[in-house]
Amino acid sequence: xxxxxxxxxxxxxxxxxxxxxxxxxxxxxxxxxxxxxxxxxxxxxxxxxxxxxxxxxxxxxxxxxxxxxxxxxxxxxxxxxxxxxxxxxxxxxxxxxxxxxxxxxxxxxxxxxxxxxxxxxxxxxxxxxxxxxxxxxxxxxxxx
Length: 144
Description:
The protein has helices spanning 14-30, 55-74, 92-102, 118-123, 125-133; strands at residues 5-9, 33-37, 83-86, 107-112, 138-142. Mean pLDDT is 85; it is low at 118-124. With 144 residues, the protein is an alpha/beta fold. It is globular and about 55 Å long. The protein is 44% helix and 17% strand. It has one domain (5-142): Rossmann fold, CATH 3.40.50.620. A five-stranded parallel β-sheet has the order 3-2-1-4-5, with helices on both faces.
């Protein structure tokens, strides 16, 4: 199977850097397009009125952190690699799956620590969920 569009899920975890590097290297080796997706979680954008942070301030901070993450990961890409970025708002797994469909990707790359549940013991919670529901192959990259 040949891959032409590789979508890489970034969630600011240590394993996402390993996954991004693997996905970007694979895209360069295959002369494929690559895309990075990080999801802006609505729940995290609520803010904390008791701490003096409004909803708008929380949203702005979340967006700035997400853009910084994508900048750091994009810096790992080989020169000339066609790279797209996605910053959807919502529930992370659902938005990643929606991006797989909308872009449309023919390979999804995710990182894992490998700690949750029986299958999650090998793959990790988010990776397991995405692997079960994605309509394309999923490359799971472990932290080590």
